[in-house]
Amino acid sequence: MKKIILVIGAILLLGLILINILSEDTGTMATDGIEINTTYLKDSKDLVADMSISGNLRKERTLDIKTLLKENNTISIKNDQSGSEIEFIVINSNGKKVFSEMIKGDAIRSFKSLSGVGNIKLVLNSGQQNTVIIINEDELNNE
User: Strands (DSSP E) along 58-112, which ranges?
Assistant: First the structure.
């Protein structure tokens, strides 16, 4: 009876090892984490002008940033990952959603808003991330 239990245990252990080896695409574990670099407007410590995101995510993650919105706004996105989508949600100072779109690849989007501090929610899908986002580039160049 002990031999049967040992044989079954050895087979299960070998099966788990094989499943683990075969389930890895590259032979190494994918990292989980991103690096975010931001440039802030003027002397602000929390109003973002542009940012870059790089790394790898195992599951969806939402970033929430504050920025200065004006009447006519432009967001430029350079996304080097062709399979990666980012959902952009812009909320003005009154809490009203003024822009929402799933963006894949490079894009430039314009939208209208009340002037003032607003929030941008970025919903990043799982997978490789390599994106640069510039908010109101003309405003950044005037400073």
Answer: 61-69, 72-79, 85-91, 97-104, 107-112
- Closest CA relative to residue 63, chosen from 141, 113, 131, 138: 131
pLDDT per residue as tens digits for the range 83-134 = 678 899 999 999 999 999 998 888 999 999 999 999 999 999 888 888 999 9
How far is 41 from 143, CA to CA, in rounded Å?
Answer: 8
Give the global pTM: 0.71
Q: In what order do the strands lie in the sheet with 116-124?
A: 61-69, 116-124, 85-91, 97-104
Distances in Å between the Cα of 136 and the Cα atoms of 38, 71, 87, 90 are 14, 11, 18, 13
Rounded Cα–Cα distance for residues 127 and 57 (Å): 5
Rounded distance between C-alpha atoms, residue 143 and residue 129, angstroms: 29
Q: How far apart are alpha carbons 29 and 97 in whole angstroms?
A: 38
